[in-house]
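Complex record, two chains
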Amino acid sequence: MSKILIVAEHDGARLNPSTSKCVSCAAKIAGASIDVLVLATDGAAVAAQAAAITGVGKVLVADNAANVEPLSAVLAPQVAKLAAGYTHVFGPSTTFGKDLMPRVAALLGVGQVSDISGVDGAHTFKRPIYAGNAVLTVEVPADAVVVATVRVASFEAAAQGGSAAIEKVDAGVALPSHTRFVSRSAATSNRPDLQTAARVIAGGRALGSADGFKIIYSLADKMGAAVGASRAAVDAGYVANDLQIGQTGKIIAPELYIGIGISGAIQHMTGIKDARTIVAINKDGEAPIFEAADLGLVGDLFALVPELEKQLG
Amino acid sequence: MRRIMVGVKRVVDYNVRVRVKPDNTGVITEGVKMSLNPFDEIALEEALRIKEKGLADEVLAVSIGVADTQQQLRTALAMGADRAILVQTDVAVPPLSLAKIFRQLIDKEQPILVLLGKQAIDDDNGQTPQMLAALWDRPQAVSCSKIEVADGKATVTREVDAGLEVLEVDLPAVLSVDLRLNEPRYVKLPDIMKAKKKPLDTLSLGDFGVPEAPVFKVVRVDPPPQRSKGVMVKDVAELVDALKKKGLV
């Protein structure tokens, strides 16, 4: 029987929704038991949130002053130690999990399955390769621990309403001091989080400047949407890197995505193809984004976007 | 000798529209343009800049791949790497084995820094740097967009979901690089000529004692599900109507 350990992503106070998506992925393995591991300085609050996810059997909390920031070099030895007895160790395919999980896999002496987008069995998984231009079905040897990251956009959040037991654990391993956290500049915004928002308004290079992006923010605020951007817009300095959608940015799966002035480079499309409805507004009717858009509108975005905002009343 | 080791991979060029083989065993790579993995090119550029600032003495480019990978290593030498090592193999080597090979080369070469791209654009695994750091028991910093080396340490800025994160790591360390770190230089013709005379050593995968058989079995490779082309609306009013009908606004 599969015994799955999920490494929780959190900021010290709140559990990241990526954890719940990992639980959904794990629950697709028939008969699996699912535990969540919280590595924190004081993980009680985060553990309580993890315990409320339906399908979680047990929440393990490893409190340690060294866990104040999610440094992979510090977390990985603890995860590797606490993974004893588990058949699978999952983390989210967010920047947190992508950083941590390969280090865990190497410490356990096994390979890693990156970016699980589908589960075919306890040891058989689907994952995108070539920027999503192909889907690989891969089989991990049955006798190896499966270490994997889960492509969070491919799974719905698990339901709430669970009441898992919470158990304190201590990895009891020596932790390195060669890696030190200095600072984090998080963009403060009252808008919904790009990765979990139900609606996303994204702008591209055609906005022309940081100033030009104002019409995107304005429409997003009207619609209660998150703001995203193409790589070209981030490279041009119109918006910060944390708004980038695509292969090397965020992979999103909102109910509604509206791409404005975005041509639809393959690496951007990789990040939005799980959106329920894709709307494209672009002055170039030949732009590749229209090939995948459910609704397309050709025209001058500086006229159409304010008009759209107005008509949404 | 303050040496920087840079890992580079030969991959299908990022401009190629990749197609899945009709028998679903992989993607078509025959007759397709191959290039240096773009992230690795950025790693190499950064190594060269660190050397040009006088903070390193030698840049060593290492690749593990087929014999033709010599082409990509010659490109690396033309960009400015001082020498190159090819660990030659005909099989696709999984990330953990790549990390084990780098680990053995590190014992021999004693680099102060190892730079790698954050992922290869073919398998999109994004694992080798972190696995190498684990096996080496050294710091890792993933997705670096700024690297400053001084006094046996590196201060790096990383692109993370929340924004930008700054870490300080003791050297030696493994750093994986992101797109916005730098813009790689263009190779000039005289540099290509010069690169032909630079040392390129070829070793055999068999010398490293890592398993050659693939660890994971490729069951099949499929094209991604396609989204069907939707409808074009003629104006904003029609768009708003359509969104309302779908219950989206």
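Note: Chain A touches chain B through 87 residues (CB under 8 Å).
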